[in-house]
Structures are given as structure tokens and as C-alpha cells.
Amino acid sequence: MLGVAPKATVHTGDTPLHRAFSIFLFRQNGDLLLQQRARSKKTWPLVWSNSCCGHPGPGEDAITAARRRLKDELGIGTAAVVMMLPGYRYRAEKDGIVENELCPVMAARSDDHVVPNADEVETIEWVPWNEFVARTVQDPSRYSPWCNEETALLQNDAAFRLFLSGIIGSKRG
Fold first, then answer.
1. Which of 1, 40, 81, 123 is the least crowded, having the fewest Cβ atoms under 10 Å away?
2. 99 classed as catalytic
């Protein structure tokens, strides 16, 4: 069944499969933005995760929703957003709340100043990609389950490696 429902009524112990998206935001110098989820979040409070996640609105495509969410959650007004893993799907459970999402993964670039929305983000950190990947391997419990899965998939994705090499190339040039 496909429909529209308020987020607060959907994320429960029996969450239906629904649309979402996930973004890995990079500066032009190649650093990745990580966020610690706000303590007020219903799902995975105070857990570290990738740059930004959200849900598209009715009739909203994933790229448009990603740009909206980057603005709402991080104050990023301009970003080059690229679809990386359009078919990603995951299910995870913690503290009786289930995430069950069709969640395309995108990479984005922006050097805009980040202004985190305190309702969504506790704190942020910029880190080089390879250091971040090593951290997820060394201590996966520090990160959200979708972040760990997406990171492993991106690390092995040829299109993402090309995206990343473009960032690193501009850093050297």
C-alpha cells in the first residue's frame, strides 16, 4: 500500500516500508560532514551518522527533497547533489522503534557554512573519507546502522569513487 502519513505516526515498532533518502555531504577539500543526531530524536538519539537524512514529501523527487533537507537540517543553501545508490533499502530496530525504508543514497558537495538545526543535530564533525571509513570498521556501534551499510556500499561503488576522486583532484589542483 502506498500513502502519506505524518512521520510521528509511522516510526513505531511496526513501521511500514516507506520512502526516505540519505546524503553524504563533502566540502570541496574532500572532508565529509558527520552529524551526531539530536538527543530529542525518536530514532537513534545521540548516535553519529552521515551528513543528513530525511523523507520526501508527496510528489517530491529524492534530489529535490535532499536539497530541501540540507537547507532545513544544516543551513546548506547550495549543493551539487548526485544520486549514488538509487535502490538502497534497509530495516533496523532500536529501543522498540523500527526504521524500514527505501532510501536512495546521494553524495553532495558544498562549501556553504553549516548551521545545524538543534532539533535535528546535536553536533557536527568534518573528517576525511578514509578516516571515516576506518572509524566505521573499528567501532560500528558508534554510527547508525544505515550509515554503516551505506558507507560500505559507497566504498565499493565505482561511481562514488569517481565522485570522490573529483573532490580530491580539486584539492590537489
1. 1
2. no
Q: What are the Cα distances from residue 114, in Å, to 9, 32, 93?
A: 30, 12, 30
If 0-12 CB within 10 Å is exposed, 13-18 middle and 19+ buried, where does residue 158 land? exposed
Evaluate whether residue 151 is within a structural domain: yes
- C-alpha to C-alpha distance for 107 and 105, rounded to whole angstroms: 7
State the 10-residue block means of pLDDT for the chain, 173 residues long.
59 73 95 97 93 94 96 95 96 86 96 96 97 97 96 96 74 36
**Between vectors from CA 75 to CA 156 and to CA 67, what angle results, nearest 5°?**
55
Rounded to an integer, what distance in angstroms lies between the CA atom of residue 173 and that of residue 170? 5
Residues spanned by the domain of 102: 19-156
> Of 73, 99, 101, 149, which is the active-site residue?
101
Q: Which long-range contacts (CB under 8 A, 24 or more apart) does 130-137 make?
A: 132/32, 132/34
Q: What residues contact 139, with CB distance under 8 A and at least 6 apart?
A: none
Is residue 52 part of the annotated active site? The answer reads: no
In a domain, 130, yes or no: yes
Does residue 170 sit within a domain?
A: no
Q: What CATH number is given to the structural domain containing 67?
A: 3.90.79.10
